[in-house]
Specification:
The protein is α/β, with parallel strands linked by helices and 229 residues long. It folds into two domains: 125 residues, Rossmann fold; 94 residues, Arc Repressor Mutant, subunit A, CATH 1.10.10.10. Helices cover 41% and strands 21% of the residues. The chain is built from eight helices and eleven strands. The strands form three sheets. Strands 2-1-3-4-5 form a five-stranded parallel sheet, sandwiched between helices. The chain has a four-stranded antiparallel sheet with strand order 6-7-8-9, with helices on one face. Strands 10-11 form a two-stranded antiparallel ribbon. The protein is elongated and about 65 Å long.
């Protein structure tokens, strides 16, 4: 089940960017442009985590946080505050109001996603499944599912383990022998050329929407996961 994130942000360009990138990471995302609308959306569907802008129109982010913390049903709802205010006193005030974490604009999507996972892992461990992303690929080890650019990718068990190994070490080149040990196990006899067959299947499965194939062949060395070549 995808964690549901409610983004309360009045800056259209930023909320669109957040929604696009978080959906690419495999989250279910909704957006509210002001605090009043955000509170209504919480009543309609309880989010798993809220990204809350400090300076919201109608009802401020601080007030939204205060109201949510004052209601029994939303008292433990994870909240990450987003704000241009970087002063220590403002950060403390946001955390004192009940925010679980605090991110000052501008921030990178990599940092935001890491913070979301950390908060979910700490507060809602059941939702912080073992999901790892690299570029536009997201692998969910618990659900045994893979998505690329938002599209589900169907892999056999060996291809899944192969991709999982590459995702743990992006950019690193592995020889066929190293991949055999890591994916098949050192006590199983499999010909080295078998790796080529499964890498070929993995490449074919990851060929989504004309995107560059992420599995790179390194002459006389092996293979690597490289989304920037």
């Amino acid at each position: 089940m995808q964690p549901y994130i409610l983004v309360m942000e009045d800056e259209d360009a930023l909320s669109t960017l957040l929604q696009y990138n978080l959906e690419k990471e495999g989250y279910d995302v909704a957006v509210a442009a002001d605090g009043e609308e955000g509170l209504m959306q919480v009543d309609e569907r309880m989010p798993d985590i809220i990204l809350l802008d400090w300076m919201l129109p109608k009802v401020s982010g601080i007030e939204v946080c205060r109201r949510l913390r004052g209601r029994p049903e939303t008292r433990n709802l994870p909240i990450i505050m987003l704000t241009a205010r970087g002063e220590e006193s403002d950060r403390v005030r946001g955390l004192d109001t009940g925010a679980d974490d605090y991110l000052t604009k501008p921030f990178s999507m990599v940092e935001l996603v890491a913070r979301i996972r950390a908060v979910l892992r700490r507060i809602r461990p059941g939702l912080a499944d073992d999901r790892v992303g690299h570029g536009d690929i997201v692998i969910d080890r618990v659900a045994h599912r893979v998505r690329r650019a938002g599209t589900e990718v169907h892999l056999g068990p060996t291809e899944f383990r192969l991709l999982d190994h590459f995702m743990r070490h992006p950019g690193r080149v592995f020889s066929r022998e190293q991949l055999l040990d890591a994916v098949w196990g050192s006590d199983v006899y499999v010909e080295a050329r078998t790796v080529d067959v499964h890498v070929g299947r993995l490449r074919k499965a990851l060929d989504v929407g004309g995107s560059a194939n992420p599995i790179r062949t390194v002459r006389s060395a092996g293979y690597s996961l490289d989304l920037e070549h």
